[in-house]
Automatic annotation (TrEMBL):
Its cofactor is Mg(2+). Its EC number is 2.10.1.1. The keyword Metal-binding applies. Residues 174-312 form the MoaB/Mog domain. It comes from Luteibacter anthropi. This is Molybdopterin molybdenumtransferase. One of its GO terms (biological process) is Mo-molybdopterin cofactor biosynthetic process. InterPro entries: MoaB/Mog-like_dom_sf (IPR036425), MoaB/Mog_dom (IPR001453), MoeA-like (IPR038987), MoeA_C_domain_IV (IPR005111), MoeA_C_domain_IV_sf (IPR036688), MoeA_linker/N (IPR005110), MoeA_linker/N_sf (IPR036135). It comes from the Bacteria. Pfam families: MoCF_biosynth, MoeA_C, MoeA_N.
Amino acid sequence: MALLPLGQAFEHYARTLAPLSVQRVPLELALGSVLAESPKARIALPRFTQSAMDGYAVRAADGVASRQLIGTAAAGSPAGVHVGPGQAVRILTGGMLPDGADAVARQEIVERDGHGICLRQAVRVGDEVRREGEELLAGTVLAHAGQRVTSGLVAALAMAGVDTLDVHRRPRIAVLVTGDEVLRVGHPLGPGQIYDANGPLLRSWFVEHGYGEPVVAYVPDDEAALEEALSAALDSADLVVTSGGVSVGDRDYVPAVADRLGVRASFWKVAQKPGKPLWYGVRDGKALLGMPGNPAAVLVCLVVHARAVLSHLEGETAVQPVWSQGVLTESMDADAQRDRLVRMRLDLGDGTARLHLLPKQESHMLSNLASAHVLAWLPARDEAFKAGERVAWVPI
Ligand code: AMP
Ligand code: MG
């Protein structure tokens, strides 16, 4: 079977997946979700005209003449007086500007004498004043549907009085780690056994990217056991990821079992290295990514493919992963048939994204993840890549 070009895998995801249902949630629970509405400010900001400094609320037209102090306006405690000619109110940052005042004389230019003040220099109308609505008016659109909610957006919406949001439900994720040889770390290894890297990688990556704890199950290389586990996973999750058992070995049951469970295959085998055996299909809007067993292949399938699948399930407008451009710092071999996805160290120190090759790039090797920052995308071609060439990269 011909290998699917990597770019076409992204088209398959876009074509086969739709955003999960919309739910209304309290603002702070929306962190990390994707907006299903374009929230608007409920109030103007600032909501009232106020002081930007600690000082004195005055009438600018009084110039440098001395003024009588008639009250205090602290943040949250308006003075409740009218400032007439020759009068001033002590005011603190965020305090409501009293009626009649049109400027604030900051403390540094004011001298106090008993119940009055003198200005060392005149002020102009509006000095040190934050005007009502100068930032935005009630009804201003603050963010757009399809945008992911960040801590900064949570803060901006809270300040504008928005307390609930329509967001797409977060995808529930199930992970099935297959392989008779795979043992969880912490147990003594028997002959032919290896420690499980994919379970910890998948679990940590989803948690790190804000999806919470996936359900992780371990499945032996047994067709019936896989069918039972995959069936349960498809019932409970929106994205099911399997590791191992997806190549052409005698015990690679994932494609056949997925087919039997009614998952519609979109593609099997992508022109990428590592990660060629990747299998993808959909059942009732739920995605199944059958990832290979080699851990570096799992990493590539997570960063490049699971990211895209999750973006579509969440209704994100800027579909991830978003690739940046960087410069190779040394020459590198190309693969004639498959795009290479290479673990690299990123150096942004001098303002240019410089990509440094890490050793040990084979698909069964993972030790370079201790210092890798990004995956670089080196398209399939005959001639080697030269130092100084520009290539695309994504953070891991
Ligand atoms: P498979 O795709 O099942 O044929 O596995 C390919 C290679 O990846 C084999 O060498 C497996 O032993 C190895 N492998 C499979 N699962 C894991 C895992 N969870 N952690 C580390 N290596 C694995
Ligand atoms: Mg296996």
